[in-house]
Amino acid sequence: MSVPDRTTSPFEPSADLPPPPMMRGTWGWMRENLFSSLPSAFLTVGCLFLLAWFLPGLIRYLFIDAIWSAADGEPCRAPGAGACWAYVNAKLTFFTYGAYPRDQLWRVNTVMASGGILAVWLLWPAAKGKGLAALLFFAVFPIVAFGLLTGRTPFPSLLLPSPGSNIEWWAFRAAIGVAAVALPLLALQRFWLGGVLLFLVAWFMAAAHWRLLGLTRIDTDLWGGIFVSLLVASVGIVFSLPCGILLALGRRSRLPIIRFLSIVLIEIVRGVPLITVLFMANTMLPLFVPDAWSPDRLLRPLIGVALFSSVYMAEVVRGGLEAVPRGQYEAAMAVGLNWRRMMMLVALPQALTAVIPGIVNSFIALFKDTTLVAIVGIFDFLRAVDTQRLDPAWAGPSISATGYIFAAAFYFVFCFAMSRYSQMMERRHAAGRKR
Amino acid sequence: MATATNFRPRQVTNANAIEMIGVHKWFDKFHVLKDINLTVRAGEKIVICGPSGSGKSTLIRCINRLEAHQRGRIIVDGTELVEDLKRIDAVRRDVGMVFQQFNLFPHLTVLENCTLAPVWVNRLPKAEADAIAMHYLTRVRIPEQAGKYPLQLSGGQQQRVAIARALCMSPKIMLFDEPTSALDPEMVKEVLDTMMQLAKDGMTMICVTHEMNFAREVADKIVFMDRGEIVEANTPERFFSNPVQERTRLFLAQVLR
Ligand SMILES: Nc1ncnc2c1ncn2[C@@H]1O[C@H](COP(=O)(O)OP(=O)(O)OP(=O)(O)O)[C@@H](O)[C@H]1O
Ligand SMILES: [Mg+2]
Question: Cα angle at A274 between A270 and A280, to 5 degrees?
């Protein structure tokens, strides 16, 4: 195609040409990335050498020489034996559930499966009905999970008469009463109020029928393993983000008292190790409340972990808020948004997407820090692995090592998944908004 | 989508849209506004000009309380601006503002930028807010960009979205703070055209700008500021042909050259 002579003909935009073809094959790529210069070539060769030295042994240990099935630790103690996967297999139930009664494991499985499904539903970008998912995950799921796992009624009888009177019958009548108010409200399109009342109806009905499930009580002393680790991590994650946001807003508040309290809380909790926070939660929380209300021994570290991760989250979120340009706040005020809406609709959405890497970083740190709850006697996954290597039937250096490899793989899989997920979210947000 | 049938722009109800009486403001010890007296009648178009740092932005930002004045009175369509969130919110609903740097919300689409305040502040149903937003996006001649994000638009388009966003609250008064000075020359005209259209429709406007042709054509009154004071306020004819103050003459020699 020739360029027209601009000196004689009038200006006409010329047609678009296709981009030049990519000139790189595998070889081109290698030359560009691996052997572009002498030092780079040395590094490449050196790394290959290290891999060649290291990798075969690792593969042999993990797979080829590994013992896949055995009745006890005997074959794994043989010289030259590799990883003892038979041990992981034999102990898997214990690693997953701790000492939770074996005939009640369906309760844990139900909770973990439904929690997992709801979490995927919430996090899957293309999924529909996020509002319903959020309602189920944040309102219904915790209640059901608590009831199923503990076997205690998750419907505190705040509005109900004390035990001894016929709670079921009372709750049933209350439900009918509330429904009588809720349904006309719904008909009048007062959806919000009607929804709250319907929730109460469901609450009373569930309270009335809960005993019919006939669940036995299972104290938290028996809980353990992966299930407890995931529980601590999810509670920490679910609470740290909203609490962190509130603390960050508090720290930037114009009201001096709120700002002061937020700063004090953030700086104190951030200034001590998590272990100290856990000890304090364990010993001090019971001092502040009457005996009957004394928090459960599992609840105390849960509060400690949630508090600890919240203050870290607060600082991450504050960084994001600082990064929102002043003009954004001014534009929000100029169109008439009040402070709360300005924060919710303009500042926080931008601040939070800006700090997705920091948020996920906190989540990953939190996930690994859950192993510390073992210090205050919680039987988490790592502790479960750690105790079982003392089982005489399964004693042996390679067997212990396999347990720890398994634990490492478990933590790695979850943390890596979080990291990849955050990278995907960053890309999605960047793609929509940037030029 | 619903049509914006029952929707009507609002008008200033008092004879004076804005009254500033003896307004003073300080940034720490720095006296930015000195005894500002300015009355803007309903439907009037005021252009404010003056050298950099003379307090033009600060003056118009006092009108919707992005800055608080410390002495004197500011009355916007009958509501006096005092330290009272209810009144400030009321004034901000009546006064639209367009910034030099556009300040569109980058996480929202063009349409969402325009419907955010109508939905959350005026409590309009979503469909109606959408209809109004499309109405104004059509008026600033970019309805086809409604689904895009602000950063995907050119500067001139962004500024027109910013104007549409302000108009969606059906303000009685519009404030413009150098709306064209962050734009490439080619885009200045499209924004000025939009503003002229708005002026023709009878909007009460205060506009900080150095576009003297715009001022000549649109302004009822030109206010010249220097060092926090109003040096001279005059009709365009008098202002350009026969300014009273020597300082004004000097400034005009600079900008008109
Ligand atoms: N938040 C602030 N704190 C302290 N000083 C400020 C602040 N905002 C503005 N000033 C000062 O007040 C003076 C007036 O500022 P203003 O922005 O009103 O000027 P302007 O006339 O709009 O100038 P320009 O044409 O450059 O926009 C300037 O000297 C500026 O440095
Ligand atoms: Mg300015």
Answer: 100
Comparing alpha-carbon positions, the chain B residue that sits nearest to A345 is B116
Which residues are CB-neighbours of B86 under 8 A, at least 6 positions away?
Answer: none
**Nearest-10 crossing angle of helices A167-187, A191-209:** 160
Q: In 3D, which of A114, A367, A110, A383 has the Cα closest to residue A223?
A: A383
pTM: 0.84
Residue B255: how many other CB atoms lie within 10 Å: 11
Can you tell me whether residue A106 is helix, strand or coil? Answer: helix
The SS3 of residue A389 is coil
Integer Cα distance of A287 and A124 in angstroms = 43
A224: β partners: none
Residue A34 DSSP SS3: coil
Which amino acid would we find at residue B87? R
Ligand 1 touching residue B213 (CB < 6 A): no
Per-residue pLDDT of chain B (257 residues; tens, 9 = 90+): 444 445 667 888 889 999 999 999 999 999 999 999 999 999 999 999 999 999 999 999 999 999 999 999 999 999 999 988 889 999 999 999 999 999 999 999 999 999 999 999 999 999 999 999 999 999 999 999 999 999 999 999 999 999 999 999 999 999 999 999 999 988 899 999 999 999 999 999 999 999 999 999 999 999 999 999 999 999 999 999 988 898 999 999 888 87
Question: Looking at this predicted complex, what is its ipTM?
Answer: 0.94
Kindly state the helix (H) or strand (E) to which residue A217 belongs, with its residue range: none
> Residue B238: CA atoms inside 13 Å, Cβ hemisphere, count?
11
A128 touches B: beta carbon within 8 Å: no
Cβ proximity of B107 and A433 under 8 Å: yes
Task: Give CA–CA dist B20/B62, Å, rounded.
Answer: 10
At A213-256, the pLDDT tens digits run: 888 889 999 999 999 999 999 999 999 999 999 999 999 988 99
Measured CA to CA, the distance from residue A385 to residue A383 in angstroms comes to 5
How close A120 comes to chain B (CA, Å)?
24
**Greatest C-alpha distance within chain A:** 103
Angle ∠(A185,A186,A192) on CA atoms, nearest 5: 90
Say whether A319 sits in a helix, a strand or coil.
Answer: helix
Nearest to B117 among A335, A350, A432 (CB): A335
Residue A336 backbone zone (phi > 0: left; psi -120 to 50: alpha; other: beta): left
Report the half-sphere exposure of A388 (CA within 13 A, side-chain side). Answer: 32
pLDDT cut 70: percent of chain A above it: 93
Contact, A215 vs A147, CB < 8 A? yes
- Pick from A350, A327, A345: nearest CA to B116: A345
Decide: A190 and A62 in contact? Cβ < 8 Å. no
Contacts of B22 (CB under 8 A, 6+ apart): B35, B36, B37, B71, B72, B73
- Beta carbons within 10 angstroms of residue A165's beta carbon: 10
What would the DSSP string read from start to end of A121-163?
HHH-TT-S-HHHHHHIIIIIHHHHHHHHHH-S-SS--SSSPPB
Ligand 1 atom nearest the C-alpha of B58 is 18
* CA-based nearest residue in chain A for residue B147: A432
